[in-house]
Amino acid sequence: MIDTVEFIKKNKFIAILRNIPEAKIKDTAKALYNGGVRIFEITFNPSEEDTEEKTARALETVKNVCGSGISVGAGTVVKNEFVAAAKKAGAQFIVSPNTDSEIIKLTKENGMISIPGAFTPSEIVSAYKLGADIVKIFPIEPHNISYLKNILSPISHIPFITTGGVNKDTAKELINTGALALAAGASIIPKDALENGNFNIIEEKARELISIINNA
Questions:
Q1: What b/e string do you get for 181-194 counting C-beta neighbours within 10 Å, with b at 16 or more?
Q2: Residue 1 has pLDDT above 70, yes or no
Q3: Cα radius of gyration (the chain)
Q4: Half-sphere exposure (CA, 13 Å, Cβ side) for 183?
Q5: Rounded to the nearest 10 degrees, what angle do helices 22-34 and 199-215 cross at?
Q6: At what angle do helices 80-88 and 101-109 cross, to 10 degrees?
Q7: Strand 93-95 to strand 71-75: parallel, antiparallel, or no bridges (unpaired)?
Q8: Are 185 and 17 in contact (CB under 8 A)?
Q9: How far is CA 164 from CA 63, 169, 179, in A?
């Protein structure tokens, strides 16, 4: 069985699939995989009533398209029922924008890796104490990378990833903060490319960003 934390640490990048039309999930996943992506976060949309079913189908599609040798997880997990739906669909990790003790507990009980979101030092430490395997420091935008650097020294024992503002211009500096991995969606899945079916652009952007991360 794959060690998800070690797999994340090894691959250093998580592709976020957010609001991808169902008809384009297959080709998007294939393009990302061909570009070197091996970790996929498929997000729920809490505003949609059928988001549990849609996200479960997307998780299955990504697994079927990419086969073995990948790790898939669910993102924007802000409801307890999302944890169960993700587990049933084969998710290996759970990502949230916030720290919710119940969701962390349910995630661990279901044998999945917990990656809650936090921003301040107090939030980050609290998330880790509650059982988070990795903390998602979120949001980190290009203008506040210095904030990330400032807070890390006293909490350097806590494994973390960053999302928000991850692109080809910020990736090197962000990964060099000591992050286990970076996560991005919009910077590698441009809206125009998705709408026009230019999946080769998505593949190229994924390959470029992963190369920058690996060479940092």
A1: bbbbbebbbeeebb
A2: no
A3: 16
A4: 33
A5: 40
A6: 20
A7: parallel
A8: yes
A9: 25, 13, 13
| Amino acid, single-letter form, for residue 167 | N
- Listing DSSP states for 44-58 in one string gives P-TTSTTHHHHHHHH
**pTM value > 0.90:** yes
Question: 75 pairs with which residues across the strands?
Answer: 43
The string over 63-101, giving b where at least 16 C-beta atoms fall within 10 Å of a residue's C-beta and e elsewhere, is bebbeeebbbbbbbbebeebbebbbebebbbbbbbbbbe
- CA dist 126 and 132 (Å) reads 9
User: Helix crossing, 51-66 with 22-34: angle to 10°?
Assistant: 40
Return the closest-CA partner of residue 173 out of 162, 160, 184: 162
At residue 37's C-alpha, the angle toward residues 209 and 203, to 5°, is 65
The pLDDT value recorded for residue 143 is: 86
Calpha distance 65→13 (Å, rounded): 19
> What DSSP designation does 85 have?
H
Place of tokens 């997880």: 73
* Phi/psi-derived region of residue 69, left when phi > 0, alpha when psi is between -120 and 50, beta in every other case: left
Separation of alpha carbons 42 and 44, rounded Å:
7
In the numeric block, the tokens 């949230």 are attached to: 96
Residue 196, pLDDT > 80, answer yes
Q: Which secondary structure element, helix H or strand E, spans residue 64, and what is its range? A: helix 51-66
Q: Is the pLDDT of residue 30 over 80?
A: yes
